[in-house]
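Quarterly update from the structural biology core.
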Amino acid sequence: MKTDIEIAQEATVLPITEIAEKAGLKPSEIEPYGYDKAKINLDKDVKRDHEGKLILVTSINPTPAGEGKSTVTVGLADALQAAGKKTMIALREPSLGPVMGMKGGATGGGYSQVVPMADINLHFTGDFHALTAAHDLLAAALDNSIYQGNPLHIDQRRVIWKRVLDINDRALRHTTIGLGGPTSGVPREDGFDITVASEMMAILTLSTDLMDLKRRVNNIVVAYDFDKQPVTVKDLGVAGAITVLLKDAIKPNLVQTLAHTPAVIHGGPFANIAQGTNSVLATRTALTLADYAVTEAGFGADLGGEKFMDIKVPKLGKEPDVVVVVATVRALKHHGGQALADLKQEDLSALEAGVANLQQNIKAMKRYGVPVVVAVNRFTDDTEAELTMVREAAEAVDAQAVTADVWAKGGAGATDLAELVVGKAAEKHDFSPLYEENDSPVEKMNKIVRNIYGGVGVELSDKAQKQLKSFERQGWDRLPVVMAKTQYSLSDDAKKLGAPKDFTIHVREFVPKLGAGFLVALTGNVLTMPGLPKHPAAMDIDIDEKGRITGLF
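Predicted structure, tokenized:
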């Protein structure tokens, strides 16, 4: 059996100029990065009143057994294209952290991939490097201000702007900087987050244009002064320089699938510690150019799905016409208690327990008033009895389920799914936000926990309660809330699989992200700088004398 990268390396890739023409882009609207990828810069003088249907692909809570959300996204788009529908994909860019860590590549799989697979998974067009540089320029400017007489009276005990790196490195979570004497800065405690957790990433993916990005950068809170008042980027005077570093990174990237469906890939915030969606500009580009824009949100419906609806939709100005919830029999059996080593064996009792996770994620998405369907990403070991049980579980909560075999067959394995999606997208729906803008942060979080996770509510630490009182004084208490939570469970305990009941989400602290326009609620023990596993994916990646890469996935 060929690996994903072997399939990608053997593929026929069209020149990116042909893909751009197919998408409806003028030659002046793309900036090629070599043969097979380009930046998009839509000509604002060209009137495009078109808005396509928006298809959001999300999933059950992920497990080590695999779900294949990106693979289904690509396969569905290829099936829509094969059916004569003008289609584009909008995806996130992979982070080097997971690529070199546990997950491996993130461009789909098998015969449902976006290419050039290796380039996209590695440095691509340099967006993440630009973000890292922009973020760390701000960190350097902040520490320089403290060193140069501290004119802003920054309390170095209350600096909240860490440094970032796009590699999993647990040793950098907590650091001490400024050591080495008077010429080396002012000593203080610091730390690193992974680049995708940076507020710069959130800003990039939520900005509508370059000037909106600069405005948002100016609003970033980096620290507090000795009077406990916020210090912003505007105070430091470096928003212009930061925006210059991001002038190309803000432009979406154009690539293609193995079936030559145009794909826009841009931005990459994680959904467990950030908002988990590709950029507003990427999705808007796909909606403007295509009749069907197929996009995905990170991790499960409880994280990426909810944040797409509550954080991205208001900025995008368009809700999904259909939500596709991806599930696998294997993952649902694991949610029901079957051991990973036994997942190839039929176990209807474990599956019966595990489908509760699927049902809760379906109900979470149906809460928004949009049609929901289920794509059962098929594995060769799935039995008909198991597939029937999943379909019946979906139907029990008023959602239709179909199987998809996109890894092995590409778009041809998603024809039933495409037909179902087209039919559902034509239905009228009445989108209903989960919470109101004027709801308090606690009210917002309680609605998320009760309606999306199936829990009873939130419990705040003393620190979190004090922070909310401070936010209220600052006028920040009406911002949306991004829940930073484990992706593996509907609760904040990664070990509670399936659909736990009567649980409380524990919020230990908040991080205000005024540039992005939301508050981040840190729950459980979720980390903003992951670590490498005992056997990281990097140990299996290699390159030969001809430049041929192996082991990327």
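The radius of gyration is 23 Å.
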